[in-house]
Amino acid sequence: MTDARVRTVGGTLASKILGLSKWGGPLAAYYELTQAVSADENDSMDRGSALEESVLQLLLEREGYAPGALVRPAAPVSGGETMPYAHARVDAWIEGLDVHGSDPFCLVPELRTLIEAKTLALEQMGEEWGVDGTDRIATEYQIQGLWYHGVCRAAGMKLAEEALVPVLVGPETELALAARMVERTGRPLKLEDINGTRMELRVYRVAWDAELFSAMRARVFRFIRNHVERGVPPEPGDGDLTDRDLKAVARGISSKPGEVLDFGRLHPVHQATVADLLEAVRERKRWKELEEQAVVRVQLLMGTAEEIRGLDGGARVTWSTIKGGSRRFELREPRR
Predict the structure, then answer these.
(1) 8-state DSSP, 238
(2) Which of 205, 227, 248, 312 is the most exposed, fewest CB within 10 Å of its CB?
(3) pTM of the entire structure?
(4) Where does a domain end: 167, 186, 210?
(5) Is a pLDDT exceeding 70 seen at residue 126?
């Protein structure tokens, strides 16, 4: 990393870089990395943060683990010398638990099992989500779990072959009520709190796949080398098309008094972006002037008439009298 502003890549950004996230694409990831700002949190993210501890405690209670076996890391895990551009913001891990190929779960003292807690509204669950105990989860969560697995292994951790993804599932309204109750009482949920509701705890698994992680790591590294370090934004991906993430990132950037960029020194890609803006603004002004002139000419043409019909596509021009005796001029397009 050559720029002090550049952040490291976590699981969420990795899925954006790979174009496999519903929260944004490569272009959003580029600006989050280079501008050191994050996208706005939405209601689902706020709810997930409020219920994270509850999901972990429900997992311990349901599976009968000792509370002391759960470790909440104080800081993200760094990728170390082999992955200095990466981090893993792991929710928790259980010391000595091996969930791979064992029924019931067995203990292996030197291993850690990574835990990634989630909440999910039933209304948001698609066919990619399987039943409790399977490995069928949304792609972005698979990527996140595998990324955390790889980064922690790069940091020298000895991990079980599978990570656990406990998910508190329920209707949006019930999850929102549960989050408010936890915030009000300061106490995480227990199983008795969700019994008799439509909420349930499901525990999914993400298996370690060294070959897939190697391919992911190579793509992320190329992204950093070719775009982030060179200051060249990538082409927008599918996740970037809504501009939701990009607008949130842009709003989070604070200006520095006196800092000026010389257009002639910008990268050609950046110059083209600025030129597009300049052209769009000038075109908008030109069309605005044409519209104002056309409005006046059509109003003169209409005189005392209230409407012009028969335009292309069923459009109509109206100039009707409203309260107070003034007239309102509109061009109305038919509803599609």
Answers:
(1) G
(2) 312
(3) 0.71
(4) 210
(5) yes
